[in-house]
Amino acid sequence: MYSIAIDGPAGAGKSTIAKSLSKKLGFVYIDTGAMYRAVALFFLEKGIKESDDERIDKLLADLDISIKYVNGEQRVFLNNIDVSSKLRLEEIGKLASKFSAVKSVREKLVALQRKLAERENVVMDGRDIGTVVLPDADLKIYLCASSGVRARRRYLELIEKGFDKSTLNEGEIEAEIIKRDEADMNREISPLKQADDAYYLDTSDMTLEEVVSKILDMVKEER
Known about the structure:
This protein is α/β, with parallel strands linked by helices.
């Protein structure tokens, strides 16, 4: 099996690039961020906070997350219910970052992600794929972009999804991204960082097509 690990901060374009790359290569795309968002949604609906270790550990046994593909699109199922449409809400994203720092949550999802990579050729994106989840990945990429560029991308993404422009503020989005970066890079368990053997790609001034083309060239060189 061949595995490609794509890491980077929020808004760097990981998911969009990983999806496009997986389609061109015929690989399975695994959005680990969506899996953590599903966990956050699960505990939010249960009224459980990330600090409640005892209740989290108890309920994890009843938590089942699966990824299926419907018409070529990844769908995330939480205890057999498709929750994909709920996972991109800003509130869920903030909670996902908090729950991803919980040791028992991370251990459960990392084990699941590794099993997926053992069965298929995969493009997997997240915060610690190349450093923790798939340390022996065949190709590792670390994507980054300035906080301003990432805020702009997020702003346009939300508008495209139907959010009212009057309720959005790019400055606030950028501030939230910077705050998220600090939390992800400074957390005790699996902090966001570039793997020693990962290629660094700043996508601030690159189009999607340019980034994907660059990575495809890397795949050809590495295989």
